[in-house]
Structures are given as structure tokens and as C-alpha cells.
Write a structure and sequence with these properties.
By secondary structure, the protein is mainly alpha-helical. It has three helices and no strands. Keywords: Membrane, Signal, Transmembrane, Transmembrane helix.
Length: 79
């Protein structure tokens, strides 16, 4: 029982030390850093939304689409 309490205390002390060390860098974040993070987040959101759109509505409805030609060729090769 005592080992568990000591282990929890040790882990808590380690986490607090990491948080204090990380807090030193918070003041060094500039406007450019924030703009890069926001820009990267917007790009990720745009790409994710576009992928979901293409997954739900692929838009391959034309008769001349390469997919239709490939499927038609494979269907004709079967006896």
C-alpha cells in the first residue's frame, strides 16, 4: 500500500515538474507562431472536409469516366 502512495506522489511530482518547464515556453510564443498554427489547422480542416465530400459524393457519373471503361473492359473479358 505504501509503495502505491509513494509511486503516485513520485508521478505527480514528475508531472508538475514537466508542467513548470513547459510554462517557461508559453511567454515565447509570438504572433507568427500563432498564425502558423491557425493556418495549419485551417488547412487540415479544409482537406478533411474535402475528403469527406469526395467520399460521400465522388462525382464519377460520366459515361466516359476511366472507371467505367475499366469496368466495361473487365466485364467483356469474362466468358
Amino acid at each position: 500500500m505504501m509503495r502505491g502512495v509513494l509511486l503516485v506522489m513520485l508521478m505527480t511530482a514528475c508531472l508538475l515538474t514537466i508542467q513548470v518547464q513547459a510554462a517557461e515556453f508559453v511567454d515565447r510564443v509570438g504572433l507568427i507562431d500563432k498564425l502558423l498554427v491557425v493556418g495549419g489547422g485551417l488547412i487540415v480542416l479544409f482537406v478533411t472536409a474535402y475528403c469527406i465530400k469526395c467520399f460521400l459524393r465522388p462525382g464519377e457519373r460520366q459515361d466516359q469516366h476511366i472507371k467505367r471503361r475499366i469496368l466495361k473492359d473487365k466485364g467483356e473479358d469474362k466468358p
